[in-house]
Fold this protein.
Amino acid sequence: MEKEKTNRSAALVLILITVMVVIVALFLVVSTRHEQEAEAEREATEERVDAHRNTAFSNKWLLDEELTDRDANYIESALLSIRKTYEDRICNVHINKSKSTYTMEKLGENIYFICTEGTTETAYPKGREGALARHIVSLDKDLPIEEQDDIILGKRQTVKAVIGIKCEADQNTLTELAKKLSSKYDKAPVNATIDADMHITREKNGRVLDTSTIIKDMTSYLDSLEKTDFFGSYHTTEVEAAVQASYLKLIDTPVSRYVTSLIPTSIRGKNIALAASRIDGKVLKPDEQMSFLEALYDDSDGKSYGKAGGFLNNRVVQVEGGGICQVSTTAYDAFLKAGIIPVERYPHMCKVSYAPGGFDAALAVGTKDLVVKNTLEYPLMIRAKVKGDKLGVWIYSYSKATKGLTYKPRSKTIKSGVEYEMYLDVYKGSELQESKLISNDTYKKLKG
């Protein structure tokens, strides 16, 4: 009996040992299989990642093309192809019957790529296409191998990277182009003229090219991503001369004149003759103004004034251009007799010898000017001449410009040698129509 129990116990132990051996063997088999599977998975992961080492991950774009699995050579080649499309564009500009062709290089066009990653933008100028291609391929390659594999398997989203292209016009080049076009096509009009014998030389109309529109159109094109060539057709437009011959024909008679005396052989007399020549033949359209300072100091004739007597601090001193105020004074009184009251006029510091008080018009650079405006309904022409010891200024216009009225300037002495009131009396025939007070002038006494 005891022996049976002992045998039974031994059998149980043997069974337990066998079961445990089987379990351990099974565990070892399963464990080994898991290790093998893990190793196989690691190898597969490394193979997948290694296979993408030189190609771009997903969510990388070149314009509308996704670059997944594209290598740097492919991307660089695509970038250069796109750049060439824009570099090969041509701007065709037709002006009148002339055609000009401008390449992107000639226009200084700036073409470059922009890589946008999230909120970051990086510019890649010409010559950096290879660097940009390598950058796209390298994105996310610094992540752990497992995360890179998740990207490959679509389990992980990458940062989106988009390559765009920019085209920018060079405004400095376009500005220079506008200047050249203006120089080539613009032609200034030449006014009709009338000489002392009332002979009229006809006007010549000019032409002008609207370069601002051309540059605006070209800028819009060059700043765009338009792939086709630019074509623009433009024409110059005629610019009429400001003074037409038909207009000058209205000037047919002197409507007023005023004369003052001088010593022609003196430096002062020569200054007066030069100043008179600078306003002789000036034509003013209705409402057109003229500054005597600007006109009398216009030295485009290449001549210059000598030194002669002029006022300074109530004294007579030698100044350049001394005496030319006699021209502005004589012209002032001629304008008054035509019924034209100047826009701006000043008396001298002291009374002058060649005109009564109130009749003078002083000039001083920066402070005193005589500015006249043609208030007639017709053009007028100024004639100014020195003949012998006389300076005469005539106002020519249409014979009916003054509408039958006669104008007579008159000064009234308020305080002898010191203060005067200046009037312009208006007559129709012999009948006084109106007396206009036009100035109240006060003079200082001349010192020694």
